[in-house]
Amino acid sequence: xxxxxxxPTSQILAAGRRMTLRCTQDMRHNAMYxxxxxxxxxxxxxxxSNTAGTTGKGEVPDGYSVSRANTDDFPLTxxxxxxxxxxxYFCASSPGLESNEQFFGPGTRLTVL
Amino acid sequence: GQNIDQPTEMTATEGxxxxxxxTYQTSGFNGxxxxxxxxxxxxxxxxxxxxxxxxxxxxxxxxxxxxxGYSYLLLKELQMKDSASYLCAVRDGNYxxxxxxxxKLIIKx
Lengths: 113, 109
Hints:
The structure holds two protein chains of two kinds.
Chain A: E1 4-7, E2 10-13, E3 19-25, E4 31-37, E5 44-49, E6 56-57, E7 64-66, E8 76-78, E9 87-94, E10 103-104, E11 108-112
Parallel strand pairs in A: 2-11
Antiparallel strand pairs in A: 1-3, 3-8, 4-5, 4-9, 5-6, 7-8, 9-10, 9-11
Chain B: E1 3-5, E2 9-13, E3 18-25, E4 32-37, E5 44-49, E6 53-57, E7 60-65, E8 70-75, E9 84-91, E10 97-99, E11 103-108
């Protein structure tokens, strides 16, 4: 693989179900991010990680959790999905938080019914 | 609160020049970014400004005035493939990116 991959590409989920969105990068970047993108709104940061073993909350963290067990993987979990979590989710990475560019994965389109 | 403003939509003609403006109010400033996003795709990096002035990169240029909280992206010699959304983002004092809602640019022949 080259760059960032996300899985699944899209998913329809019943409200109340648990869901994990997967993100893997092979660039050995220290920093990783999860954003959601909704029509008419800018990208909003959900959670981020500065390095393996550490995570931080972004602008809209409620209802989401993340882990960073190693450098490459940064899964995002919705413990009990709600319709307001219907969105397109992008994972991104950068060499560090201060880097001049973030690299984005292809996105996961999630629909919660 | 933190805020990034940019026009919702702009229309331009193939071969022409277009300027997309962005104004911002953030808690701290550690750089301004422009990204391009084609419909249904991920954002891709265009430019980064941290000091006042103009940064030129081929057909694209980006300008920053920190005292005015203002930036613009200038696209020259427009091509049909430039039809996309252009996202302005500011890295705040906590090194988090605050994003504008994006400007949808429509290029007409």
